[in-house]
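F.,

This is the one I mentioned.
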């Protein structure tokens, strides 16, 4: 039986996870340079060791009330063949989930095709995201052009 490692993070009091293979690094968020004519949830761009990376506020994308903490973190991930920063409240852990720890999403969650499945860990539920489906086509183009 196989297993997979995930990076777990908090966002508006819920736990989400993405495959560790898609995470390039985790950094402390110090703000971004806002670009004109971008959606509210696109924080802007950052300079990461000479590379310009688009940063998206994941709570804003999901229309959630994010914590008002100054200690946010950014997951630098590879999605849609480019590196993107995802602002989250906090990264909590890396954990390995066995194949039998996943639950198929119900009809409500299926309306959001970026929700891949639900991970069950003891008494916790983790929303497993599918990054490739998180960004709609015009967002991918906008982020590629910004970076």
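My design for it:
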């Amino acid at each position: 039986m196989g297993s997979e490692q995930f990076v777990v993070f908090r966002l508006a009091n819920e736990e989400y996870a993405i495959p560790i293979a898609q995470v390039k690094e985790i950094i402390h968020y110090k703000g971004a340079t806002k670009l004109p004519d971008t959606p509210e949830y696109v924080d802007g761009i950052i300079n990461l060791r000479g590379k310009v990376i688009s940063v998206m506020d994941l709570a804003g994308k999901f229309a959630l009330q994010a914590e008002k903490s100054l200690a946010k973190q950014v997951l630098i991930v590879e999605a849609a063949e480019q590196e993107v920063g995802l602002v989250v409240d906090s990264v909590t852990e890396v954990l390995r989930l066995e194949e039998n720890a996943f639950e198929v999403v119900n009809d409500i969650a299926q309306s959001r095709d970026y929700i891949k499945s639900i991970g069950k860990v003891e008494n916790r539920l983790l929303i497993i995201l599918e990054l490739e489906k998180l960004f709609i086509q015009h967002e991918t183009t906008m982020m590629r052009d910004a970076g």
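The first strand starts at residue 3 and ends at 11.

Talk soon.
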